[in-house]
Amino acid sequence: MRGLRTRAPNTMRTVAVVAAVVGLALAAALLGPRLLGDDGAAEAADGFAEAWTAGDDRGAARLTDAPGRAAAALRENRGGLDGAKVRVEAGEPERDGDRATVAYRVRWSVPGVGPLAYRSRAVLQKRGDDWKLHWRPAVVHPELGPGVRLGTTREPRRRGAIEGRDGRPLMTARPVQRVGVVAGKVRDARATARALAGVVDIDPKPLERAIRGGGRQQFVEAIALRERDYQRVEAAVKAVPGATVVPGTAQLAPSRAFARALLGGVGPATAEQLKRLGKGYAPGDEVGQWGLQSRFERRLRPTADRRVVLRADGVPIKTLVRRPGRAGRPLRTTLDQRTQAAAESALGGRRDEAALVAIKPSSGDVLAVANRPVDSTYNRALEGNYPPGSTFKVVSTAALLERGLDVDQPVPCPRTLTVDGRSFKNFEGGGGANPPFATDFADSCNTAFVSLAPRLPADALRDTGKRFGLGQGDFLRVPAARSQVPPGRTKVERAASMIGQARILTSPLAMAGVAGTVAAGVWHPPSLTPGDGRGEIPLERREAATLRRLMRGVVTDGSGTALAGLPGQPAGKSGTAEYGGGDPPPTHAWFIAFRGDLAVAVLVENGRAGGTVAAPIAARFFGAL
């Protein structure tokens, strides 16, 4: 029994030692040198992965045998991927004496693209007591080599077109010639900027700054010209040292003037715009600058095709990951291309402040919006608010008709009329007679209307104006002025309100609506884009017929004879609106008119008399159609 006891412990001890040896051998085989204490290669491999993941490119580079080249490559590839974050995991080094290889699992999160995942391999070498990673570009990606790095591309899809009522594009991508310079090829930035600016009529200072700040291979655009415009200056452009012309496309209307203030423009996003627009936009993106292009930016904008690529000397040679974009969505409007062209033709090349709006009375659809001067982005046709002058007499007459006015009865038209010390006179009619009211209306006799002011309560013009859309809500999804017809506070104000003065303000769009209400016998809210307001306010049938008759008399026998020779029996009303101070004060020229299912308002700021200045523009508009 004692022998068994003495043997048993020895046997057990032997088994335990054997088991420990086997366990260590197995662990060494499975876990490698880290368990055995020789873990320098693993520490170097892990350290490189950890530093690279943390964004410490210099720290990672110090663990290589070429810290300068490694730091530059790590930095350039991270920058090429737009500052992407990376997660790197090291595998177990495979030792072969003083040399080892390690596999890395690399996963980038590329902004705007998403994940890019792959495996790369690196060689570790022991030098003295330290292990260093042998640097070569393939450590970052297996397909990198001299002159090849990771990068991204961003290729925008087509921007959505702004369409007319028939679905045909009004503003879409059209061919242009982009005139500019390659920054690195310019010796004298100031001289080149001035010379080019003199040819294409731009401010040379921003161009000079852009040239000085551009990269050596960067194309700095001065201006994009339509093909026809470029042909006029082609020889002069080519004579400028360093000038370069690159074909391209730009979002353009059929002509430069065509509804420019309304449709808007597209250009490179500013830093302020990028901040406001937020996620999804990047420097160099083309965005709406004003008008519909700006108001409906989110709808019209495309998203870019984004790719992660290999670049060889800056040129993409292979796509690694692609995230497709989408084209912008089109925007359908109520604009009619033929009517808009007629509006532009009617205003012609005038450089003063003027506007023309045309609508479809039966629906309220806006058919044309034209503004001058062309260079201005201010849409005075919709956003401008002006005293309407005698065009407002349509509303005043409607209020009088509601209270029993007989337009065939005489209403004196003295040359002047004084109300509480304020003298009123006539601008477009003579006066001194006792004609029927219909003649007063046709001749735009101010004193006749002023004399009838006591027939109306203080709020009559405000209430009647609402039936013509004046002072109603905001119906368009673009900026538009809201008319105001406040009650007269004094006898003088009530008298001045009868002829569209005092504190009454309206826009050309609103006054086109007044003419359209007479034409259709009902007011429809203006409509320009999907989602605009709808509704209607009818006039009393006899009242509408009387107003049509009176407005027709303006054309046949009154202040609107500029339209008398046109077919289709056009009808209208002139207006000469005082504003500001002076003796006499300056005046705006107005004319509103309709023919069939088409109504128009014309405004010329500082245009003197409506019958002689604005009416001929309306005549040219209808004549062009």
Characterization of the model:
By secondary structure, the protein is α+β, with helices and mostly antiparallel strands. It has four domains: 30 residues; 107 residues, Roll (Nuclear Transport Factor 2, Chain: A); 171 residues, Penicillin-binding protein 2a (Domain 2) (Alpha-Beta Complex); 288 residues, DD-peptidase/beta-lactamase superfamily (Beta-lactamase, 3-Layer(aba) Sandwich). The protein contains 22 helices and 24 strands. Strands 1, 2, 3, 4 and 5 form a five-stranded antiparallel beta sheet that branches. Strands 7, 8, 9, 10 and 15 form a five-stranded mixed beta sheet that branches. The chain has a five-stranded antiparallel beta sheet with strand order 17-16-24-23-22, sandwiched between helices. β13 and β14 form a beta hairpin. α13 runs antiparallel to α22 and α16 crosses α21. The protein is elongated and about 120 Å long. The N terminus is likely disordered.
